[in-house]
Every structure is written in C-alpha cells, then in structure tokens.
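Exercise 3.2. Students should predict the tertiary structure of the chain below and write it as structure tokens, then compare their answer with the key that follows.

Predict this chain's 3D structure.
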Amino acid sequence: MRFCRITHAALALAAATAASAQLSTPAPPRTMDEILAAAPAEHWRTPDPDHLLVMTLDSGRVVIELAPDYAPEHAANLRTLTSEGYFDGLTINRAQDNFVVQWGDADGEDPAKAKPLGSANAKLPAEFDTAIRDELPFTRLPDVDGWAPEVGFDRGFPVARDPAKGRQWLAHCYATVGAGRGNAPDSSNGTELYVVIGQAPRQLDLNITTVGRVIDGVHRLSALPRSLAPGGFYAQPALRTPIRRIALASALPESARPHLQVLSTESATFTALVEARRNRADAWYLRKAGHIDLCNVPIPVREAP
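Answer key:
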C-alpha cells in the first residue's frame, strides 16, 4: 500500500510539473492564415453596394470600392457616369510597367469625338485631402512613414494623416484608384481613372484625387500587356482592352452582384494580422523585421459565406 501511495504522489507531482511547464511556455505565434481562420463573423465588413463599381472585361470582373468620405464629389460623379453607362464600350488605354493602368475615353480630348457626359459634371473641385474627423475610423500603424506623420487604415483604405494640419488623404498603395487630371488641380472629373499596379507611387499623394481601391480582380488589370510607348499609353488602338460595362453593384440583379466581405481594419483580428506581418513567424524567416510599410499590409477580402 505504501508503494501505491508513493506512486500516486509521484504521478501527481509529474502532472503538476507538466502543467506548470505548459503555462510558462508561450504559445507559438500564429500565421496570417491561422489568424484569419479564427476571425469571427463580426470582424468582416460588407461593402455598401451603392459604393461598388463592377467592371466587366473579357477576362472577368473587377470590383472597385469608392471612398465618398474622402472624395465626395468625385464619388457622386462616378455614380452618375456609371449609372448612365458612360464607361460602357470605352477602353483601357494605358499600362505602364511598375506604375498604373488607366482607362477612359481615348478620344476624350477631342471635342468632336468625345463621348457625352450625360448629366454628370464636367468640372469638379480638387479633392486631394479631407479634414480629420472623429466619425471616421482610423487604425494607426505603429511604424514611421516617410510620407506622412501618421499612417493607418479606415475601413480597409490606406490613409495618411497630418494631425498638425488636421488633414488626411488616401495613400497611393497597390490597387488604389485615382482620377487622372491635367496640370490644373481641378481638371479631373472621374472620366479618366487609373489603378496603381506597381511599387507604391506615394509621390502622387496630395497631388491627385484618389477615389477608392480595387477590392477584387486587380490581377486582371495588373496582368495586362505593358506598353513601351511614352507614358505607357498604347500607340495602336487595337492594343487597347475593351471595357464591356461598368455598373453600380446596387443596380445589378441580386444574382449578378458581387458578394464580398473585407476584413474590418478596426477589428482585433486586423491588429493581430498586422503584428504577424511585422514580425513573420513562418519557419523560413530568420529575422523579424519589427516594421511594416503602409502599402505592405494586406487587406483580406473573401466571398461572403
């Protein structure tokens, strides 16, 4: 009986020691995939279909989410242009390597050939930035940025801010969509749009109106053949990519609408994701960077379950 009592005591001590070791050993850091797999449903945001532009190309669909809080007049004009079919039948006219893809009316500068704007405005004010407002969410990154005093995200949009001036703006990251203009600051109206397909050209920040970002199908634009002509504009009309249609998602039948969800950048899941990307725990990484650039933070998008 004494032998049994000693054995039971030893087993209890061993179990307690193992439990203590488990408590003192930190859990291995989670990968991005593991973090997303554990994200609760409320950490995903469903974009407003009134703010989604659905571009149809022969290669498939491209979905752009507008940012009316940052460029309200351009967003409103784009909704009008789209609703009246302005972009239907136009073309992608520019693909400059490591820079942008641009689309619109190839004859837009010729009054005799330009496509009518319908009821859309031909003239808009420049909307390069907007006031910092408490009602707009902002998840700040912990790292310094060479282009702005603060950077972070508002509902998935990359945002730069200058608190001393009380101003903020959408940053030129991959997939950011902007409104092309001439030399005059107020010479854009949304009829010429571009999307960033290369290294983030942050020198464009505060020099041009940014209207939103591609949340689905950007690969269809970034895979287009590059033009070696000046500025990346196609020298021959036959090289341009036709746009079959651009429609507001809210104007499409329910069955034809994109049903996408964007990870909320105000969620704890996003905070964990940023940290996982700042300090990669994958076995391949030998050194943790402890830093991440605004334009290197992924914004996950998924089909709604």
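Discussion points: The longest strand covers residues 209-216. The helical segments are 2-24, 32-37, 72-83, 218-222, 268-278.
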